[in-house]
């Protein structure tokens, strides 16, 4: 049977600044998934989209075409509201781990389909695989049953969800076309809409350790994704959150699980607790629950109970010790003062080089590797105080991990010590709801 379009004509339309028709988009996404459109042709189209952009109608249609390439889950018959969270990725971002069971405490199902890390940003599934026995892969039937029995599930997305996106993302990753807001938005939202959740809260990271380095680009991405979700009938909100400094103290798979458990036990770093609670409130509000107190559920053990149920339902031993790295190197303060910069990218790359992250998808992780922050942004230090420790399975990895700390911020280094304390603003903006006072990322000098 003859194809109704050809790839060259579609490429030329976008190359010349034209608007792709609905039928062109439907065809090219389907034809690429079927193998009719070759990788080099889709690479050319991706570059044309990167350079020329897409309007809202095109983005919505591209997203719908990727959803249509696979299956679409539906949880409406479960009899409970469902809510999910997606983060655009950062350093030390372990929020999904305490967040999913916390929201489930209030009768909202959380079908959290998560991914693996690549480069300096960690993957939720990698972190959870630090727990002996825990399984990431689940059938759709098993996921539905766990939502009914426990209320929360964190697992790998099945191959049936938006297969066009999986194929296209791998291509964009090697052709210099990842940084396209229309294609980022469509990639994220095609999977989340296909997932079948009723409520979606987006955690759009801003800063050196995030994909979006400035708040203007982050706002554009957030608005585009909120529009896509809303148009698809999903109650969608986006929080813009700071990623100029790592979240929490632990950066690395096992360390982040340990820290998440501390949060679920009513403790943990203040920034992780704050963001977990704020995202939980947004998810619950989207589900129509406005009188819940997520902070109290962390303190009184209800969230911890849900965590144990969720992990055990997926075969995990919640009481097993986490992997511990045999090689540790300390990084000490070189002067008295306050930490005025603790660069997320520098710390993230250090953890990656130590073995906590992947350079390629088939790399084997060192689950014990990473960076632990004994001091963080705004903390007072004395010369010789330990600011961070680097953890690795092999001493061979340590020199490159240490070097990453010095290479950050164009050679200025990951850590800066100054004379005045600074305060971090975690929540920078909200799209789809009322915005907070903070309007710029990063830090503000305390007065």
SSE blueprint and pairings:
Layout: H1 7-15, H2 22-34, H3 39-52, H4 56-68, E1 83-87, H5 96-104, E2 110-114, H6 124-128, H7 140-149, E3 152-156, H8 163-173, H9 181-195, E4 199-206, H10 215-231, E5 235-242, E6 250-251, H11 253-264, H12 270-286, H13 294-299, H14 302-313, E7 327-332, E8 337-342, H15 344-356, E9 370-373, E10 380-381, E11 386-392, H16 398-407, E12 415-418, E13 422-424, E14 427-431, E15 443-445
Parallel strand pairs: 1-4, 2-3, 4-5
Antiparallel strand pairs: 5-14, 6-9, 7-11, 8-10, 8-12, 9-11, 13-15
What can you tell me about this protein's structure?
With 447 residues, this protein is of the alpha+beta class. It folds into two domains: 76-159 and 188-320, Nucleoside phosphorylase/phosphoribosyltransferase catalytic domain (Pyrimidine Nucleoside Phosphorylase, Chain A, domain 2); 327-423, Aldehyde Oxidoreductase, domain 3, CATH 3.90.1170.30. The chain is built from 16 helices and 15 strands. It has helices spanning 7-15, 22-34, 39-52, 56-68, 96-104, 124-128, 140-149, 163-173, 181-195, 215-231, 253-264, 270-286, 294-299, 302-313, 344-356, 398-407, and strands at residues 83-87, 110-114, 152-156, 199-206, 235-242, 250-251, 327-332, 337-342, 370-373, 380-381, 386-392, 415-418, 422-424, 427-431, 443-445. A four-stranded mixed beta sheet has the order 1-4-5-14, with helices on both faces. It has a four-stranded antiparallel beta sheet with strand order 6-9-11-7. The chain has a three-stranded antiparallel beta sheet with strand order 10-8-12. Helix 10 links the parallel strand 4 (199-206) and strand 5 (235-242). Helix 4 crosses helix 9. The longest helix has 17 residues, at 215-231. The radius of gyration is 22 Å and the shape is globular. Mean pLDDT is 92; it is low at 433-447.
